[in-house]
Amino acid sequence: MSYNRRVFIAKSLSASFIGLAPLFLKGGTPVLPGRKFTMSLNPYLIGVEQLVTQRDLCTIAHRYGFESVSVITNDLMEKSDHELDALLEEMKKMKLSWGVSFLYVEYRKDEETYRKGLEQLPAMAKVLHKIGADRMMTYIMSNHDELNYLQNFRQTATRLREIAGILADQDIRLGLEYVGPKSIWSANKFPFIHTMAETKELIAAIGRPNVGFHLDTAHWFTSGENVADLKTLENSDIVGCDLNDAIKGITWENQPGYQRELPLATGVIDTESFLEALVSIGYDGPVQAEPFNEALTNMNDEQAISATAKAMKKAFALVD
Where in this chain does the record put each Xylose isomerase-like TIM barrel domain (predicted)? Predict the structure, then answer.
């Protein structure tokens, strides 16, 4: 057992007093409880764009050992109740659960664009509720060219409160992903939310119990955050999670915004500690890869999925 792992276990024992999952004893040695989160396949995050049906995604995810799949909302909207039931039965046989769906309402732009997108949300939410896909995510753009921080905060909180209300009617949770890289939040006139602490303030302002975090190791890393920050969260605070690695030879403050690696590719991000924290919290949702990697994108679809599955399995083996 490595020094880092011993330190983590010691900290976790102390953390159990503040509501974290307790450790168990095996042969007199404290060990973490088993992981509850699933290895999820989101093809669009790894440059795979040919899987246009949910059934195709489920089939290839099962082939490569994934445990959950992202939601292809447009495909599901076109299916009959009978077709949806058949799909769910196939997923049950494959032992696949749902990952996250993406919020297609563009709440970051002008009012007309926002309202147009919002009109379509209730119908989408009803289909997701019907199939039991109860996790949705969106990102918070960490800069703006017109709105200052307070103006942007008020508009974002108001719009996401309305969106979350529609989703709550269908028992769907909404995860917010903050965007950490300085190269992004400093790229425009007004910087905006780009840390976990700021996102907590936004979630509190939204005031809906179905709103939480969509975590991302790259944003956690580029925000200068650590395991202690993760331990302030509970399972109910986390809706989804992205896993990736950072570019070697570049400090966390200067990491590029849209260039990353598959999990454990460089070892720059402390993936083991991150995943161990999720285990200790008892997080039970999907974890998907989001590398923003040109080499991966240039592979054919089968190769990209195979490489992603290999990297994810290696990462999960750290806590299995």
Answer: 60-314
Coil, strand or helix: which one is 204?
A: helix
Please state whether beta strands 97-98 and 238-243 pair in parallel, antiparallel, or not at all (unpaired): unpaired
For domain 36-316, say whether CATH 3.20.20.370 is its number: no
Helix, strand, coil content of the chain in percent (nearest 5): 50, 15, 35
Closest Cα to residue 33, out of 240, 312, 241, 283?
283
> Scanning the structure block, which residue is given the tokens 């024992």?
13
**Rounded mean pLDDT for each run of 10 residues along the chain, 320 residues in total:** 38 38 44 85 90 91 97 95 97 98 96 96 97 98 96 98 98 97 92 97 98 97 96 98 95 87 96 97 97 90 95 96
CA separation for the pair 276, 187 (Å, rounded): 33
Q: Are 245 and 265 in contact (CB under 8 A)?
A: yes
Quote the CA–CA distance of 185 and 307 in Å, as a whole number: 31
**pTM above the 0.90 mark?**
no
Q: At a CB cut-off of 8 Å and minimum separation 6, what does 317 contact?
A: none
Q: Which two tokens stand for residue 207?
A: 């005031």
Count Cβ atoms below 10 Å from residue 47 Cβ, excluding itself: 19
**Kind of pairing between the strands at 190-191 and 143-144:** antiparallel
Is the separation of the CB atoms in 247 and 268 below 8 Å? yes
Q: Give the pairing of strands 238-243 and 190-191.
A: unpaired
Q: How far apart are CA 177 and CA 179, in angstroms?
A: 6
In the chain, where the domains are located:
1-33, 36-316
Pick from 161, 208, 154, 202: which is nearest to 178 by CA?
202
Query: What phi and psi values does residue 259 have, to the nearest 5 degrees?
Result: -145, 115
Treating both helix axes as pointing N-terminal to C-terminal, what angle do 111-131 and 149-168 enclose, rounded to 10 degrees?
A: 30
